[in-house]
């Protein structure tokens, strides 16, 4: 069984600069509620179908499968709008790989860094650009950002 253990943080924009070109991502949700999310993602020239279970702390079940690009495009057309649009950068810091997502579209201005861990309590070295942890704030889940985009939040970060 696949388990995702992930912590999520805001990025201090004044301290972080992208390295490289990153990967353009478009993703939509075929289903999303508190118990499950089924998403389709186009990431550059790759495509994936992902099923995620409910979040328990920083852990949840995750099943991800590569799918043909044409299938992903057809599935995206079935998804609720707005889609999640972002550019993902990957950076190694210490012993871990960080994924930094710079959102666009209706979530423009939001930058979030994620780290996948082997255990919920695994220690890691924090990069200097790491901001507030938002792992426990469901507003930052991509499925939540689809329903209530960052641009509509009352209080901007």
Question: Can you walk me through this structure?
Answer:
- The chain has 157 residues and is mainly beta.
- It has helices at residues 69-76, 142-147; strands spanning 3-11, 23-32, 37-43, 46-52, 59-66, 84-93, 96-103, 111-116, 130-133.
- Helices cover 9% and strands 44% of the residues.
- An eight-stranded antiparallel β-barrel has the order 1-5-4-3-2-6-7-8.
- The longest helix is centred in the middle third of the chain and has 8 residues, at 69-76.
- The termini are far apart.
Q: Brief description of this entry?
A:
By secondary structure, this protein is mainly β.
Key features of this structure:
eight-stranded antiparallel barrel; globular; 157 residues; single chain; mainly beta
| Number of DSSP strand runs | 9
Instruction: Note the total helix count.
Output: 2
Strand order of the largest sheet: 1-5-4-3-2-6-7-8
In the predicted model, the low-confidence regions spanning at least 5 consecutive residues are none
Q: Return the structural class.
A: mainly beta
Helix proportion? under 10%
Order of helices and strands: EEEEEHEEEEH
What's the end-to-end separation, in Å?
36 Å
Report the principal-axis shape.
globular
Mean pLDDT: 94
Radius of gyration: 15 Å
Main sheet summary: 8 strands, antiparallel, barrel
Q: What portion of the residues fall into strands of 2 or more residues?
A: 35-45%
């Amino acid at each position: 069984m696949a388990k995702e253990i992930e912590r999520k943080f805001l990025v201090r924009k004044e301290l972080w600069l992208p390295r490289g070109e990153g990967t353009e991502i478009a993703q939509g949700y075929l289903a999303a509620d508190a118990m499950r999310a089924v998403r389709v993602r186009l990431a550059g020239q790759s495509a994936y179908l992902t099923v995620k279970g409910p979040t328990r702390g920083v852990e949840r079940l995750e099943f991800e499968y590569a799918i043909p690009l044409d299938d992903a495009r057809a599935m995206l057309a079935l998804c609720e709008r707005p889609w999640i649009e972002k550019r993902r950068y990957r950076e190694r810091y210490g012993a871990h790989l960080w994924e930094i997502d710079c959102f666009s579209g209706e979530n423009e201005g939001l930058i979030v860094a994620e780290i996948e861990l082997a255990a919920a309590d695994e220690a890691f070295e924090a990069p200097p650009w790491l901001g507030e942890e938002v792992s426990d704030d469901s507003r930052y889940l991509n499925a939540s950002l689809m329903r209530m985009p960052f641009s509509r939040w009352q209080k901007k970060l």
